[in-house]
């Protein structure tokens, strides 16, 4: 839960406490799940080699590779990590070994595998096949009222719609999904999809700014945080023309300024004081070399910091 909510430090602390205890158990499922989670924490931190090492250990420590998906999540997680790191061939080999296809019968026990397959189909530029598969998985998750699955499937469906060329429908679908996900703090289910979801999030932010109903249901602070997390590469390097790099919080404030939010709303959404918001705004203006909000937003768009 800490990982899903984006609190990587808390997730790591719990793993540091729990993994040594798991190593004392004869049941290896908990250990394998913990190590796989550690892999995703490292991936989110930009440590790809460390992520692979943790996933390797999870595979060695976990149940038999022949165990069904509910009992052994590691093979699917390994394939998903390979996709996240750009190794499409490795994920394709895994799917072939599992005899998975877009026509595979959806079932709760095999949902993890099929969601990775959907990601593979998107990576292979087969969005229509991914949409067909995701439609079947969505119907099953809806019938069983499994909110976490509904959110993940819907996020992937939005990516598939965008890849198929229907970006307007994709942004609307994603906005509705974000409104469902925000109250429980779902973060990594979106952020882990990387640049493709970042582009759609920018569309939702633009729709929010334009007052579109679906987008306005998404809390602005939540949307800004997702934009920051899904495209960390935009923050790390120095941006030519920028006096000083913006911090993560300043980028969130910048996105909210671009959406036209007043200081009071920014303070409420970020759960900080009004004085803190004023300081952030002052820093944003200073770093962008702007004298007012409008000039800052225009400058940020010119520099590619926001869409």
Note the topology:
Blueprint: H1 8-22, H2 29-44, H3 48-61, H4 74-84, H5 88-97, H6 111-123, H7 127-143, H8 147-163, H9 167-181, H10 188-191, H11 195-209, H12 213-216, H13 220-230, H14 248-258, H15 263-270, H16 274-288, H17 293-302
General description of the model:
With 307 residues, the chain is mostly helical. 67% of the residues lie in helices and 0% in strands. The protein has 17 helices and no strands. It has helices at 8-22, 29-44, 48-61, 74-84, 88-97, 111-123, 127-143, 147-163, 167-181, 188-191, 195-209, 213-216, 220-230, 248-258, 263-270, 274-288, 293-302. The model is unreliable at 233-238 (pLDDT under 50).
Describe this structure in a few short sentences.
This protein is an all-alpha fold. Helix content is 67%, strand content 0%. It has helices at 8-22, 29-44, 48-61, 74-84, 88-97, 111-123, 127-143, 147-163, 167-181, 188-191, 195-209, 213-216, 220-230, 248-258, 263-270, 274-288, 293-302.
